[in-house]
Design brief:
By secondary structure, the chain is of the alpha+beta class. α11 links the parallel β16 and β17. It is elongated, with a radius of gyration of 31 Å.
């Protein structure tokens, strides 16, 4: 193997060792070299390693897999003419590798089944295994001839260069800078990451790699190996590295694949097929307001306490405890809290008040993760854009609930009253639902008392909760409000009943005092009786002292 590797290097072909088509050296194909001393050192350490040659520098490879690619090539040659004789090898799997000169005026990059089904291209940023390397089938790669490498016909060059237009979605937001920077840039990201941020940076790099792989701009094997090598060299445990890379690649690839879904892939079933399906019931995360794939909105006027409630939900779900003394989390879950406006100091103080017994150690490590504006080197991602959604995407992998606090600062897209401006966010929420994620949106109330902006925001939501000041609220009472459901899919009876909550400070952290002020209240009973007797709400207010708005709410609930 060593002599063969040296012979390729003598031709000017950059070589490097592989095992099962995966690079065995740090930086993958970027490490390919013609240096004799380096090549001897590699094959002294791994004498049976496969020989890989780096493509894109001087030549590219037309990779025809069996059997689909063979059939595709027949059709291509019928339509365009036979390919010229050129250097060719046979793979152990029955495929063909045809070597062609790289055009001086063009750059041909990697692609998978872009030219035709079963036909891949190995160009700039790629590599190919060459003889006498062994194939996974047990056979060896073999040269079919010793022809000089020929120029590809124009039609083939054009087909190899043609890139499918990116679909509207995550894959479209992968910048050309990232594509050109490629694997070296991702490796550099991990290499330069500061201690304490390396695993998170590795996850981001793997997510980007997954998106590029799905779009045909990167090879999975090189990405896995290069990221693994640099992460382990940086001091991360190998098992943790493997899991993080696998998770990031899977999330990035899935996100890009979801974005590239076309209308041709719609699945339609009959009512009988649906009746026969075993469709699992949604698992409750926070009973009864949040379930897997559930979309919930919490809104209130400024200063009422919506962030207190959102943080309370985050801590309760992360711990598997009660929230507001009414909603229970059956088990601990992972939460990502995306804050768009609070100072880091205020966020820390509020969380400290809400930890069980005031102790952050009682929250399982990693179950509550926080994105804060003050921790970023630039602006927060705008979740009304695909770029902003992509920035957040690697951190959503493995999370059960995403809390967005709040829409006004984190999803900016023109007028809030414009239903069209909401559609990019709605599409993202539906995407998260398909991924099995639950989302809690925190939003402001408008002048009318409803959620601010277009009512289109509520169309896809399962639950909408409004926090309101009690009629007898006093400014020194802090977070005290009525919790009222304005939309409650699947929530019935007492669970859907409005209640009052007040945050009470204590030595071991804050607790919630819950009450149902309408129950057993003589004034309430009198309001109901007068309403049933045909009195107007203005008359009821005059006679009982209960405000017109409260009287309306009391009677509406009955």
């Amino acid at each position: 193997m060593l002599e063969a590797a040296l012979s390729y290097a003598a031709k000017g072909w950059a070589v490097f060792p592989c095992k099962d088509k995966r690079p065995m050296v740090r930086n993958g194909f970027y490490a390919g070299t013609t240096d004799e001393a380096q090549i001897r050192a590699w094959w002294k350490e791994w004498p049976d390693a496969q020989i890989a040659v780096r493509t894109g520098s001087g030549f590219w490879v037309f990779d025809v897999d069996a059997p689909d690619g063979i059939a595709s090539l027949v059709e291509l040659e019928k339509a365009n003419g036979a390919l010229p004789r050129t250097r060719e090898q046979r793979t152990g799997g029955g495929g063909r590798h045809l070597f062609f000169k790289m055009p001086s005026e063009h750059i041909i990059r990697n692609s998978a089944s872009q030219v035709a089904p079963g036909i891949d291209v190995r160009g700039e940023g790629g590599y190919a295994i060459v003889p006498p390397s062994s194939h996974e089938s047990g056979k060896n790669y073999e040269w079919a001839n010793d022809e000089p490498i020929a120029d590809a016909p124009l039609w083939l060059v054009q087909a190899a260069m043609s890139k499918k237009a990116p679909k509207e979605g995550l894959c479209a937001t992968v910048s050309m800078a990232e594509v050109q920077e490629g694997l070296c840039g991702l490796v550099s990201m991990v290499e330069k990451a500061q201690e304490g941020t390396r695993n998170d940076t590795l996850n981001k790099a793997a997510f980007r790699a997954g998106s590029l792989i799905a779009n045909g701009d990167m090879e999975r094997e090189e990405a896995e190996q290069a990221l693994y090598d640099v992460a382990v060299a940086a001091g991360l445990p190998p098992e943790e590295v493997e899991k993080t890379i696998a998770s990031g690649l899977r999330a990035g690839h899935a996100a890009a694949a979801t974005a590239m879904t076309t209308s041709g892939s719609l699945r339609v079933v009959t009512h009988r097929e649906l009746a026969a399906m075993d469709v699992p019931k949604p698992v409750l995360l926070l009973d009864p307001i949040l379930s897997e794939r559930g979309l919930t909105m919490l809104f209130a006027a400024r200063g009422i306490g919506k962030t207190w409630v959102a943080l309370c939900i985050a801590v309760a779900l992360a711990c598997g405890r009660m929230a507001l003394g009414r909603w229970s989390a059956p088990e601990p879950r992972k939460v990502l809290y995306v804050d768009g406006e609070m100072s880091l100091n205020m966020l820390k103080e509020r969380l400290s008040a809400l930890y069980p017994d005031g102790n952050p150690e009682l929250v399982p490590d990693g179950n509550l993760r926080i994105v804060s504006p003050e921790l970023q080197g630039g602006p927060m991602p705008n979740l009304a854009t695909r770029e902003g959604q992509l920035a957040l995407a690697p951190h959503i992998e493995g999370v059960d609930l995403v809390i967005v606090d709040n829409l006004a600062t984190l999803a900016i897209n023109g007028s809030e009253n414009d239903a069209d401006a909401w559609r990019p966010v709605q599409a993202w929420l539906l995407e998260l639902r398909r991924m099995g994620k639950a989302v809690l949106l925190v939003h402001h109330a408008g002048k009318s008392g409803g959620q601010r902006g277009s009512s289109a925001k509520e169309d896809i939501l399962d639950v909408v909760i409004n926090l309101k000041r009690p009629d007898d609220y006093k400014a020194d009472e802090g977070a005290r409000f009525v919790v009222d459901f304005t939309k409650a899919r699947g929530i019935y009876g007492d669970d859907a009943k409005a209640f009052e909550a007040a945050l009470v400070a204590g030595e071991q952290g804050a607790t919630w005092a819950i009450s149902f002020p309408d129950d057993g209240d003589e004034a309430v009973q009198k309001v109901i009786a007068l309403h049933e007797a045909g009195k107007s709400f203005r008359e009821i207010e005059t006679e009982t002292g209960v405000s017109k708005s409260r009287a309306e709410r009391i009677c509406k609930k009955r």
